[in-house]
Write a structure and sequence with these properties.
Blueprint (H helix, E strand, L loop, with lengths): L1 H5 L2 H69 L7 H18 L22 H6 L1 E7 L3 E7 L4 E10 L2 E7 L5 E8 L5 E4 L2 E4 L8 H11 L2 H12 L10 H14 L17 E3 L2 H6 L2 E2 L3 E6 L4 E6 L8 E3 L1
Antiparallel strand pairs: 1-2, 2-3, 3-4, 4-5, 5-6, 6-7, 8-12, 9-10, 10-11
Helix pairs in contact: 6-7
Length: 319
């Protein structure tokens, strides 16, 4: 009889245990889910703030350059005065100071025997552009082609590698990747040169040995291939839908330029490629394209490359 009296209570007790378990699981899920949500939100806010800072810095640099370009343009319109020996000497000193600002490579870090000498003959834009051959270009897939230098041939490409990610790279003919960048629109871009990797704007994390290796690389013809491809690809694949792929090469060069010696950064504007009111920029920059300007003197130092977020000044056209 006692056993029969206990049996009716068992379903009630089991039901209570089930509900307790369900409630515990729900509470745990809410706590864990809330924690994950808070962590993701915090990460997204940090990424947004970092991206906004980079955009603001670039916009400020471009605004300063445009102001300086306008000032130069206005000066060019004024009647020229005879140049005195004193002012001529001052101008020569200013040019020397620009060269000093460009000299970012400590001489003791680059053994002469380790770097192929770069030809010092006058540059010709048509010859530089002729080294670049575009094999394919597609707005949804990317750009690829060949660079044929004096003694180096490389395969280059810039492709969409994810929903918010693009990858640009230079490879040898045997498919060995020499240089690459994974440019993220929502996070930090990653650069790789041979087996050295770092995130954009974090070269301070590199060791002295790694920096020495990158300085040596900066003086090579492979490094020169990156400059020329980045600079002259616009005239090979000028279509507007391809601008994001051209800009990925710009980001790659922007990350590497500090390791280049002056001679390996020199560029020249193709004859007849500028029209309209470009004189101000033309006077302070080596090369002007629709997506970036190269080798520009901002009044304090030379900016190796600046992506143009909001385009060229109104009235200045590249063709």
């Amino acid at each position: 009889m006692d056993e029969q009296n206990l049996n009716p209570n068992e379903p009630i007790q089991n039901s209570k245990y089930i509900w307790i378990t369900i409630i515990a699981v729900l509470i745990s899920t809410i706590i864990v889910g809330g924690g994950v949500y808070a962590w993701q939100k915090s990460n997204l806010q940090a990424i947004e703030q970092s991206s906004q800072r980079q955009i603001t810095d670039l916009q400020n640099q471009i605004i300063d350059l445009k102001k300086l370009a306008q000032l130069n343009y206005s000066r060019n319109k004024e009647p020229t005065q005879p140049t005195s020996p004193a002012s001529q000497a001052a101008d020569e000193t200013a040019i020397d100071s620009q060269n000093l600002n460009q000299a970012v490579t400590p001489a003791h870090l680059v053994p002469e025997s380790a770097v192929q000498p770069i030809p010092s003959a006058p540059l010709k834009a048509d010859e530089l552009s002729a080294r670049i051959t575009v094999a394919s270009k597609n707005p949804t897939q990317g750009i690829s082609g060949m660079y044929n230098g004096l003694s180096t041939s490389l395969v280059f490409s810039s492709v969409q590698s994810g929903p918010y990610e693009r990858k640009a790279e230079f490879k040898t003919k045997d498919d060995s990747v020499v240089v690459s960048i994974v440019a993220s629109e929502t996070g930090v871009s990653k650069i790789t040169v041979n087996n050295i990797s770092w995130e954009f704007n974090t070269t301070n994390t590199l060791t002295e040995k790694e920096k020495e290796t990158l300085h040596i690389f900066g003086g090579s013809e492979v490094a020169r291939a990156i400059v020329e491809t980045t600079a002259y690809l616009y005239w090979k694949a000028p279509e507007y839908p391809l601008i994001k792929y051209r800009l990925t090469f710009v980001q790659l060069y922007q990350a590497l330029a500090e390791f280049y010696p002056i001679e390996n950064k020199k560029l020249v504007q193709p004859a007849g490629s500028l029209s309209g009111e470009c004189k101000g920029l033309e006077n302070i920059c080596q090369l002007i394209t629709e997506q970036a300007i190269f080798g520009c003197w901002d009044g304090k130092k030379v900016q190796d490359v600046l992506p143009l977020i909001d385009g060229l000044p109104i009235g200045c056209n590249v063709q």
